[in-house]
Amino acid sequence: MSASLNLLATLAFASIVIGQQWQMVPGSLDAASYNGLIGCVKQASTRYDVAVLNGVVVIVPPEGGAIDLDSEADHALGSCLDNFSHTVHLAVDETRATVSEPGAVSTSQALATYQWAESHGAQSMNLHPSTSQRREAPMSPNSGSLLPRAASPGYFFSLGSASETDCSHYDQQNNVLNECISFGKSYRSIRFSNPSQTNGLRVKRWPHHLCNQDRGWKDGSRWTTVYPQSDSACYNSHPDDVFSFVGKPTPACILDVC
């Protein structure tokens, strides 16, 4: 697509998005979206590997490595995550633990073609108008008082279910950005809601308490990004239950343009 046509498409899409709450819904893999993601990943200095598990395209570190999206070395990969999470069912893992999970397949980024990913069940991500109620102005966690207007958009919502794997019968929690949210009980499934009109929401989640214990994904962390004014897909209990997470704002990305 030419630069002028891409700009027109971006502006047209933006006019639809503003003011609308969206639901991120997995679906059949789109070749252009997937190839755009892999092209972005290949531009990074690190040669990452690609895994597919339960429809999710998971970017994992090379053998002997680890990923830290807050580091300069993996900054470019973080931009890929933020740019393509609304078009590809996508995650980034700190370690290679996903590769050993039952049902997972993996390969080098050079061999991670669309045909390979599609044949192993990788999914795209689509934005559908949300049918859920708009979230109310959040209450300050643990205090019951309203968050000050100056804090907006310094918050996000988590909708977690302790017993269901499809995010039904959830408890809504109102969370402050950049703070570790840690629970005494695990959630079997969870989705995240981003109220910001201008910024994406990058969520890092752990299946253990206190967020920052570095144990690898089966005991460690996974990153996903939620599009502005959107509810994320439902993340079920694979590969472990969710006990803690932290949300950080990212630049707003529309049609891969930030």
Question: What does it look like?
Answer:
The chain has 258 residues and is an alpha+beta fold. The chain folds into two domains: 22-128, no CATH class; 150-251, Gamma-B Crystallin, domain 1 (Sandwich). Helix content is 17%, strand content 32%. It is built from four helices and 14 strands. It has helices at 3-17, 31-42, 75-84, 114-119, and strands at residues 22-28, 49-53, 56-60, 90-93, 105-108, 123-129, 155-161, 171-176, 181-187, 189-194, 199-206, 222-226, 230-231, 242-251. The strands form two sheets. An eight-stranded mixed beta sheet has the order 5-2-3-4-12-11-14-9, covered by helices on one side. Helix 2 runs antiparallel to helix 3 (75-84). The protein is globular, with a radius of gyration of 18 Å. The two termini are 17 Å apart. The relative contact order is 0.19.
